[in-house]
Amino acid sequence: xxxxxxxxxxxxxxxxxxxxxxxxxxxxxxxxxxxxxxxxxxxxxxxxxxxxxxxxxxxxxxxxxxxxxxxxxxxxxxxxxxxxxxxxxxxxxxxxxxxxxxxxxxxxxxxxxxxxxxxxxxxxxxxxxxxxxxxxxxxxxxxxxxxxxxxxxxxxxxxxxxxxxxxxxxxxxxxxxxxxxxxxxxxxxxxxxxxxxxxxxxxxxxxxxxxxxxxxxxxxxxxxxxxxxxxxxxxxxxxxxxxxxxxxxxxxxxxxxxxxxxxxxxxxxxxxxxxxxxxxxxxxxx
Length: 286
Hints:
Helix content is 30%, strand content 18%.
């Protein structure tokens, strides 16, 4: 079963910083491009870190000059989040006063993040280094960066984002050079797949290729990404296989199974192979 790859949804034209990029330049780029973070690369285009609004605002949010957890420490909420924002509030949500939820216009969260970056730039002297200069990307970034490869599956990228609680992942090639960036919003494209395509893949790759069934042996209905399986399989052991594999198809939201089976093979023990050859008699004594 072939899964859609990160390279098919990533953005190739990436806004990036280098280690020596000053604080104010980073804040300006975040504001101009309406994003909440960017990768930091070395002279060989290899990713050495990620700098975000959270990194720029760390000292101002905590009031103690320290970071609040680096990349991903500030998250925007709302379904209408911009291209560089997340959909889930993080642990730091308690830092903000509670407000009733209101629908967010598309891109609104990203614009708020960019505005926050501009505010941070205006007060950059509060985070100046000991010699009086503003900090650079090297001093602000979260490192090492969490990355994925263009050939990784979208599901793998989504799990990586969830595990590390980040909103974007730099995409690198075999030599760890930056080739793109993928965001949570990019990953949502997998769920825009037409129901007819999902149904066709389940029939062709799960029922026919994997389980060796005829195309109409099991009823497959897909509505809004929800798959319903109906029918009778030969063995009980085939039921969880069909359910699991259907759920792994790109674009599937959930699987509802009404599958039954003709006989229960769960208690069948394999027959011990018969011994043949010159040593048969000697082996049977043990």
